[in-house]
Amino acid sequence: MGGRRPVIGVTGFHEQWAFEHGSYLFTATERVFTDGLLEAGGLPVLLMSAAETTDDAVAMLDGLLLTGGADVEPSHYGREVAPETGTPDHERDAFEIALVRAAVDRGLPVLAVCRGNQVVNVALGGELVQHAPTHQGYGHPTVGFHDVDVAAGSRLASVLGAGNHPVNSLHHQTVGSTAPSLRAVAHTADGSVEATEHPDQPLITVQWHPERQLDNDYWSRLASWLVREARTYSSRTPEGQEP
């Protein structure tokens, strides 16, 4: 494939690692994400959680992948902290919420997984269910534990196919009220939202972990979709017109 690889920004988690000579804070992401984007023809770059860099980050990117991690601070969607809600990463929350809003403003292609699905919903004005115990405790890398029904005619259906798909889960929070600019395009049998998308822009979010489902190609399909959309985006001028 000719031309440069489209640049895909990948969000990371923060983790404190202790060593004999001291303790250090790392920003990292799972290799399965970057490997999948590389295989699809993209150039993944790890983004540092610094809200003051949002505009510069979005300006240099052709696509954005939001990955999993800690619970989103409930004040971002106007709620008090529930007892079951985990300790938030305030720095990451502020950065990723600003990042999503800037990306949508520019029409930047976005793919969001698990926490990323929740961040996108919150950033665009939706709310979360802080604790959904029936969704907790899944996550085996090769086994689907429940079905999601993907809506026919949706952008997600064009990537994975419409109808039922077996997926895993590793979360206890879910989308509550869907953001006004998004539409829910996949649900579980109990009606929980498992995927959303923007009707007019290349933005898809999924609640499950396709990167951990080693018995199917969901992750490679989604990664390929993001890279294709990013390549299209990169071919446009800053004004959004084809050169």
Automatic annotation (TrEMBL):
Keywords: Hydrolase. CDD domains: GATase1_2. GO terms for molecular function: hydrolase activity. PANTHER family: GLUTAMINE AMIDOTRANSFERASE PB2B2.05-RELATED. This is Gamma-glutamyl-gamma-aminobutyrate hydrolase family protein. It comes from Longivirga aurantiaca. The lineage of its organism: Bacteria, Bacillati, Actinomycetota, Actinomycetes, Sporichthyales.
